[in-house]
C-alpha cells in the first residue's frame, strides 16, 4: 500500500534526524522493534494510537498526523477515524452532536449498536475491533486530564432510545458520571428550541498547543474538515451560539437524570 510506504519513509526520516534507532523509538512508543520496522517499510499500517504517539516522540508538530490524514483521505477513513488521531494532541475539544453521543463518551454496548446499524455488512469480528478501538479511546480520555471537553447535545441525543432501555440507561449514566466528575462540561439544547446553528449536523473544534486548531462541521450535503484560522473562528462562533441556546450545565445534567428515570419507567 503506497500510503503505508510514504508514511513509513516519513517516520524513518524524522527518526534519523533525531539520531534515534528503530529499537529506541519503538521503546518510546511502546511497541516492538519488529513492528516499528514494519511501519517504516510500509508492511503495516499504524493504529489510531500510534500516529499521535509517533508525532509526539519525533517532535513533528502535527506533520505526521496531517500526512496520515491526507494519505487515508480516499474514503477509507471518515472524520471519526481522523478524529481519533487529533484527540490525542488536543488540549481542548468543543463538540456538538445532533444525533449520537460523541464517540469518546460512548459505552461499549451503545457503540456496538450504532456500529452494527451503520455498517451491517461488517463481520462480527470487524464490529468487535471497531468497538474495542472506540472503547480504548474512551478509557484513555477518562484516565487523562486533557483534552478539556465541552459537549453540547441536541435533546434528541438523550431522548432517543438506542438499542434498548438498558443500553440507553447505561449510556446516560455514563454522561452524568463524566459531568459530575467535571471531566466534561455538558449542555443540552431543549426540545422547544426550534431554530439554532446545529440543525444541519455535528460541529467540532479541536485546539492544540503545537498544531493549528481544526474544525469539522456537517451541512445538509457534506462534511467539512478545515484548519484555516478564519474558518475555524467561524465554527467556534457557531459553537458559542449553540452554548447560548442550550440549558446551563446543571440544568442539562438534571435533564439527563430525568431521562434516565423515564427510560427505566418505560422499560424499553
From TrEMBL:
GO molecular function: DNA binding
Pfam families, alphabetized: DUF5753 (PF19054), HTH_31 (PF13560)
SMART domains found in the cross-reference section: HTH_XRE
SUPFAM superfamilies to which the protein is assigned, alphabetical: lambda repressor-like DNA-binding domains
UniProt cross-references to InterPro entries, sorted A to Z: Cro/C1-type_HTH, DUF5753, Lambda_DNA-bd_dom_sf
Domain of life: Bacteria
Residue ranges annotated for the HTH cro/C1-type domain, each copy included: 11-64
Name this polypeptide is given: Transcriptional regulator with XRE-family HTH domain
Organism: Murinocardiopsis flavida
Amino acid at each position: 500500500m503506497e500510503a503505508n510506504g510514504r508514511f513509513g519513509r516519513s517516520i524513518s526520516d524524522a527518526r534519523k534526524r533525531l539520531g534515534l534507532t528503530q529499537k529506541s523509538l519503538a521503546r518510546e512508543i511502546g511497541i516492538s522493534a519488529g513492528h516499528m520496522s514494519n511501519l517504516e517499510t510500509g508492511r503495516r499500517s499504524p493504529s489510531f494510537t500510534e500516529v499521535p504517539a509517533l508525532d509526539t516522540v519525533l517532535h513533528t508538530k502535527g506533520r505526521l498526523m496531517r500526512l496520515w490524514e491526507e494519505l487515508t483521505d480516499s474514503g477509507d477513513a471518515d472524520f471519526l477515524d481522523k478524529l481519533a488521531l487529533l484527540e490525542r494532541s488536543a488540549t481542548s475539544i468543543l463538540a456538538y452532536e445532533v444525533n449520537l453521543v460523541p464517540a469518546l463518551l460512548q459505552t461499549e454496548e451503545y457503540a456496538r449498536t450504532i456500529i452494527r446499524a451503520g455498517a451491517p455488512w461488517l463481520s462480527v469480528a470487524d464490529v468487535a475491533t471497531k468497538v474495542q478501538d472506540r472503547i480504548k479511546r474512551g478509557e484513555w480520555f477518562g484516565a487523562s486530564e486533557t483534552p478539556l471537553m465541552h459537549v453540547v447535545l441536541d435533546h434528541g441525543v438523550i431522548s432517543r432510545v438506542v438499542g434498548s432501555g438498558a443500553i440507553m440507561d447505561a449510556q446516560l449514566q455514563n454522561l452524568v458520571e463524566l459531568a459530575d466528575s467535571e471531566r466534561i462540561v455538558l449542555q443540552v439544547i431543549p426540545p422547544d428550541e426550534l431554530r439554532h446553528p446545529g440543525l444541519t449536523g455535528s460541529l467540532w473544534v479541536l485546539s492544540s498547543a503545537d498544531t493549528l486548531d481544526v474544525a469539522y462541521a456537517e451541512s445538509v450535503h457534506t462534511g467539512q474538515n478545515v484548519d484555516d484560522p478564519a474558518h475555524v473562528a467561524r465554527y467556534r462562533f457557531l459553537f458559542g451560539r449553540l452554548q447560548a441556546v442550550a440549558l446551563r450545565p446543571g440544568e442539562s445534567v438534571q435533564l439527563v437524570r430525568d431521562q434516565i428515570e423515564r427510560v427505566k419507567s418505560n422499560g424499553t
